[in-house]
Inverse folding.
């Protein structure tokens, strides 16, 4: 009997762009992809932090390069991706949060969150896909979305709107780009300890709410996301596109 073989989780020879890759979930994604053999381009606005991440990745034995990138500057980002690409893998992890009660949301905060989480992620996916299509190569595009793409939460109307939007473009792009063998998916984490969530973890009433909602009884760490990134980037997920992988400890199960 000939047994079926598990498709490879290795990423040797693949090139990955990780936007927001010098901190938090993005740094975890960069480390995971490098460990799986990919050559990783770490990209965000702060060149010193990006440089430190690249140095750490190289010291761990990975292949890494630095890119200073502001995903809000669509034209500059497009030019940077075109010059450095094509990238077989994109992880959109650049993001921010400006939480407030919906009655008090300031237009500037709305624009800032939408501008990075939704508009920035959208156009970076477009740039990477256009590079792949021009090169005739398959690829895997991932956006770090959120459980807040599937439920709401207090003081999270803008953030949830931005992440629900991410799920929409992910499905639509998957439909358009399937014929190019470009897969488009999201990863939807629950609360993960990163610089982004420090203000939330400092509020005991929010920590109590979070622990009550997460069925596995603990908040997340960056390491909880790393396997999902490698899986969806790899040939092990070859038939997975247009969908969301919940990494939420069961938050959205009820
Ligand atoms: N932590 C969580 O609990 C959680 C849960 C669900 C989803 N997420 C999502 O996961 C993603 C990463 O969050 P995180 O928690 O890892 O936060 P983080 O540690 O603050 O990392 C976000 C990174 O995005 C980069 N960034 C921000 N604006 C940018 C821009 N205009 N252009 C390029 N890079 C930009 C920042 O680097 P620079 O300042 O150098 O640009 C920052 O290092 C976000 O989309 C977030 O919404 C997080």
């Amino acid at each position: 009997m000939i047994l079926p073989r598990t498709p490879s989780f290795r990423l040797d020879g693949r090139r990955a762009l990780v936007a927001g890759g010098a901190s938090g979930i993005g740094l975890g994604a960069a480390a995971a992809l490098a460990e799986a053999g990919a050559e990783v381009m770490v990209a965000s606005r702060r060149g010193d932090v990006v440089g430190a991440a690249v140095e750490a990745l190289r010291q761990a034995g990975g292949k890494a390069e630095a890119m200073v990138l502001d995903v809000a500057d669509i034209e500059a980002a497009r030019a940077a991706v075109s010059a450095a690409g094509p990238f077989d893998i994109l992880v959109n992890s650049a993001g921010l949060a400006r939480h407030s009660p919906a009655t008090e949301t300031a237009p500037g905060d709305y624009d800032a969150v939408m501008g990075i989480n939704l508009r920035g992620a959208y156009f970076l996916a477009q740039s990477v896909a256009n590079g792949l299509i021009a090169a005739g190569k398959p690829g895997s595009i991932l956006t770090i979305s959120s459980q807040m793409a599937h439920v709401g939460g207090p003081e999270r109307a803008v953030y949830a709107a931005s992440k629900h939007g991410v799920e929409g473009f992910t499905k639509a792009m998957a439909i358009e780009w399937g014929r190019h063998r470009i897969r488009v998916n999201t990863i939807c984490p629950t609360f993960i300890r990163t610089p982004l969530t420090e203000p939330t973890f400092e509020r005991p009433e929010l920590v109590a709410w979070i622990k009550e909602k997460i069925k596995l009884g603990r908040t997340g760490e960056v390491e909880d996301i790393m396997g999902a990134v490698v899986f969806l980037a790899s040939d092990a997920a070859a038939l997975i596109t247009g969908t969301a992988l919940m990494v939420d400890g069961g938050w959205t199960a009820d």
About this structure: The longest helix spans residues 107-135. The chain has one domain: 15-249. The beta strands are 15-19, 39-44, 63-68, 89-92, 139-144, 182-189, 244-247. The mean pLDDT is 97.
